[in-house]
Amino acid sequence: MSAPERRQIVLGSETHRKFVGSLVANLERGWLVTLDPPRRTIPQNSTLHMLIADAVGGGLSTDTGRRLTQDEAKVAFVTGWMIESGHASDVVAFSGHPVQLRRSTTTFNKEEFAGLIEYIMAECAQRGIPLRDPADYPR
After folding, report:
1. Beta-carbon contacts of residue 3 (< 8 Å; ≥ 6 apart)
2. What is the 3-state secondary structure (H, E, C) of the chain?
3. pTM of the model
4. Max alpha carbon distance in the chain (Å)?
């Protein structure tokens, strides 16, 4: 079996496990094998975007009263969740201005994504922003 140049495989079945095992067993020395936990799910991603739309539609604003766009709301929620949950979120100087650095949600695992969703719901509740019934969000 020839080695793949680069491949990403989701372990969805025993067949996948055996295939990955055979790939690894036949690799030459020096290959890097990386294992990652499951990433966010499609329903989680849909829920995130619905929550953000609901929050913005419900009047999400800064502490000074400026209404946020959906893009701004996502940055604010992700950065707020990162700070509250103890994840690194740095402010750095870039071209002489402070810039907030945060992780992209594409790198979140399922548990982190679930934590972000809970954070958004709690933040909206604290601010009195109505959200649809939790059962209406994708699962």
Report:
1. 23, 26, 27, 28, 31
2. CCCCCCCCCCCCCHHHHHHHHHHHHCCCCCCCCCCCCCECCHHHHHHHHHHHHHHHHCCCECCCCCECCHHHHHHHHHHHHHHHCCCCCCEEEECCEEEECCCCHHHCEHHHHHHHHHHHHHHHHHHCCCCCCHHHCCC
3. 0.73
4. 62
Position with higher pLDDT, 99 vs 73 = 73
Tokens of 70: 């959906």
Sign of dihedral through CA atoms 104, 106, 108, 113? positive
- In the numeric block, the tokens 């890097």 are attached to 32
For residue 36, count CB atoms less than 10 angstroms from its CB and return exposed for 0-12, middle for 13-18, buried for 19 or more.
exposed
Q: Are 119 and 81 in contact (CB under 8 A)?
A: yes
Q: How many CB atoms lie within 10 A of CB 84?
A: 13
pLDDT tens-digit series, residues 4-51: 577 888 888 899 999 999 989 989 899 998 888 888 888 999 999 999
